[in-house]
Amino acid sequence: MTPRTPVPLASAQYNLGQMYRKGEGVIQDYAEAVKWYRKAAEQGYALAQSNLGVVYASGEGVIQDNLYAHMWLNIAASLDDEEAPEYRDRVAKKMTPEDIPQAQKLGKRRLQMVCDAFRKIAGEDLGAANIENRFIDFCKTWRG
Predict the structure, then answer these.
(1) Which is nearest to 113 in space by CA: 83, 144, 140?
(2) Quick one: how many helices (H) and strands (E) in the chain?
C-alpha cells in the first residue's frame, strides 16, 4: 500500500464479513467472513475486532484460539465496543493465568503495528485516512 492509496472502507468490509458469516445473499462461508472481518479490524473497526474475537473463541472459520480471541476482544474493548469486555471476560475464564498477559502482549504489538502503518499512510494527519474515528483518536496518542 502506498501513501496515496486510500484505505478501503472498513464498514463495508465488516458488512461483507457479516453476510458471509450469516449466509445473507451469499453462501455461508466462515473463512471468508474471517477474511473480511480481519480487513476491517486492522483498520480499527471495533465491531470487526469484536467479531474476530468471537470467531476465534468459537472456532468459526479459524482454528479455535483463546489467545487471539482475548487479544481481539481486548482491542475492541479499548475502542469502546460495548459487548467486547463481557466476551473477553468469558474467554479469560477459559485461559490460564499465564495466557492473559501473553494475549495482552499480542494485542499491544498488533495495535502498534496498525497505528504505525496508518501513520505511514496518512502521516501524522490520521484524519486523512478513511478509518474509524475512535481508532484515529487512539492512534494519535498511542505510543506503545
Answers:
(1) 144
(2) 7, 0
